Amino acid sequence: MALTGRAALLTLVGVVYVGLVQPGWAGIGVWALVVVAAAVADLALAASPRALTIERTPTGAVRLGEATSSTLTLTNPGGRTLRGTLRDAWQPSAGATGERHRLDLPAGERRRVSTALAPTRRGDRLADRVTVRSLGPLGVAARQRSVPVPGWVRALPPFSSRKHLPSRLARLREIDGRSSVNVRGQGTEFDSLRDYVDGDDVRSIDWRATARRRQVVVRTWRPERDRRVLLVLDTSRTAAGRVGDAPRLDAAMDAALLLAALASRAGDRVDLIAVDRRVRAQVLGAGATTLLSSLVNAMAPLEAERVEADWAVAVSAVRARLSRRALVVLLTPLEAAAVEEGLLPVLAQLTRRHQVVVASVADPMVAAMARARDDVDQVYDAAAAERAGLERARLTRLLTRLGADVVDATPDQLPPALADRYLALKAAGRL
Amino acid sequence: MTAPLPAALAAPPARPAGRWRRLRAPVALAVAVLLAAVAGLALLGPAGGGYLDPGSVAPDGARAVVQVLRTHGVDVRVRTRFDDVARDLAGGSDATVVVARTDLLLGRRTADLRSAVQDAGADLALIGPQQALLADLGLPLVIGSNSPESTSVRDPSCSDVVAARAGSALLGGLAYRAGPEGPAVTACYPVATGAGLVALTGPGGGRTTVLGSGDALTNERLDDAGDAALAVGTLGARARLVWWTPNPADTGVGPPPSLRDLLPPGVLWAAGQLVVALLVAMVWRGRRLGRLVPEPLPVVVRSVETTLGRGRLYRRARARGRAASVLRAAAVERIAVTCHLTHSADPREVAVAAAARTRRPVTDVTALLVGPEPTDDAALVTLARALDSLDTEVRRA
Q1: Is the model's pTM score more than 0.80?
Q2: Would you call B277 an interface residue with chain A, using a CB distance cutoff of 8 Å?
């Protein structure tokens, strides 16, 4: 049950009645009876919200930053027109606007209402209850009921680094088989024979083919295809720290998505696992066409957990999923304690068989702090920032000594930097 | 060796004393406040009354004369409300009414007094009544001069028994004479324009005494000459004395109407209904359209927080040495990389390389990179800036 503004207004009119016509308890009582009678009549005559059937059309996924809507279908099987208000409640991060709808639903009819959603945070956002307030004919009182109508909207990682993809694809073509090179190297494979043109390296002349064709023929090479790339996303406590507006995890996802898009175009197979103390999500063996959607759907509900990463678990998970040499990309921040105690002892097991790249999200504020040296407080902050920088440099050396490549960049620069490192490895035939 | 123990070592037995020392200031403050309050009350308490207040012990009060009259067996009743005066007079006619503050006698209370005294046949004593009051009371007297005479000890010079017995007394103030066509009155203590004391037969047959000044009755002057005898003679002639200090608010009309009496009766009830309407409005606004929606939110900790925390630690510890060595180490590493040395190169080598690149004296650069710790904050800031500019120069060179 709910009262309306009209009930308050009716009671207010009673001020005139009590003041002029019947001062005293009797007057107040009489007017209270009037109001109560109106409310009771309204409640008795209002359409029952209990009878209303509400169905929700499933809402798909949406990239973070884009908008969608959720639609409810309302059917009124009762004998009375339902007038009133409906609220389709969502979690605040779902960014629901216009979640209140005015209802005028004649008996036996059906209506659709939709609520605009613009999620403000990555992940699955749930719908709460749908509340229906059914007004009586006088509009003094209303019957109200809340029913759970399950629904959710999935906010996918925005993949804002995809703007870097065209330039990296162009670079890829230069080193890929489509523009074959006649330099043989490690990790390249024989591509084709073609006629010699001026400027070709004489060392790449295939003499046997030349003898057969009586024309000078050179061999061309291309980097190997069908290599495997395994992205390892660290979802432990160190990924929870915020850099700018978003957690480090989101920046790591952005970098992983760009690399995955690039590598799948290069003909490599891309897999992903997200791990902290256990494997939280994985995408294995997805085809090139479905890879990105599988990845973003697997990433969407991931949140950084407040636990320390268990790199022994992670390394054994990686080894279990890889049978031959692969590129293993560890997306984890360079935090001294976590790296020294967790990652360093077990990294050698990976670097022995695989090419390992450690991609870390750096905080641009630390660099800014290291530069600001105007007063004594800033100098102490600068010292702390420099100390953090020395620490990261030391960790980078330790990791490099164990055979891993390190990419440490700010959230904006990490995706292109990681893609460039991938291209460099590919060009060098080190995959 | 009987050197006294340091206070800290003797602490355990001294503990109660320590507690006392802690409490000493608040207790002293509380006692001081209490004393000030008592002293203030003592000083202010008796000063409440005004001129010829029968309860006041101030010099111009009249408590002494009341006490004197009581020792003479007079039943003295101090009144401010006329209803009490009327009740005292109705109880027995053997009474004297004294109005010491005739300036406070206003409006219809004058007529009330006149009729009460008339009905009871009581004696009446007035001090310094104005002409209008005399007329209202029906006393055939006129004031000799509008300007009061000086008060001083004067001789009675008349045949009145009371005055004659009292002898010379402190009188003056307003001077009274018999009216032009009124009956004869007894005028005593003559002054230039009339008499300081006039006695006549009042409205109810009792004796009416009019004094020009009440100074003789004050605590301060009651001792002078025949003042006390005059007071007892004038006020103590009857068994009961009603000392009336009229209250100007006691007009006999009743209290003024309150706001509530002036409002039409419906307004209060309408206000009651307004409260009911407000309650309904609260119910209206207070009912939610569905519950609040909970959402688990991730922890919001900036990743830079640990670095900021370390900076704060340096600051609080004033760790200048530590900060300087970190800044130097970072600069050395950067410069080493710029100069194509290994990152673990000796700082002195790095200083030599940097000096060569920037054409600065080697000693200066060495002092900058491996010098002593800064001794104060200013030196630390200077060092930090110098390292920064050296780094920039090396990179540019």
Answers
A1: no
A2: yes
